[in-house]
Write a structure and sequence with these properties.
Blueprint lengths: L12 H29 L1 H25 L1 H10 L4
Helix pairs in contact: 1-2
Length: 82
Amino acid sequence: MYGKSQPVRLPSTSRFSLLSGLFGLSLLLTLVLDVMFMRWWGVVGIALAGFGTRLVSSLYLSCKFSSGGAAFTSAARNDRVS
């Protein structure tokens, strides 16, 4: 139990590209919504921009997972450590 070391698993390229796309989308959307909403509503607008960014990111991920379901489930199955 203590003597065995578990191999370190690096993220697959499909997951890396998914996360890097999500990072770019979130960064751009955060900057744009912060500036737009801050001008209209002040501090409340910044809070709404954060909510809008999380909402769009969630929709982006759900669309990516639903369109590539088999690829992601097989990758997740390979990541399990027994």
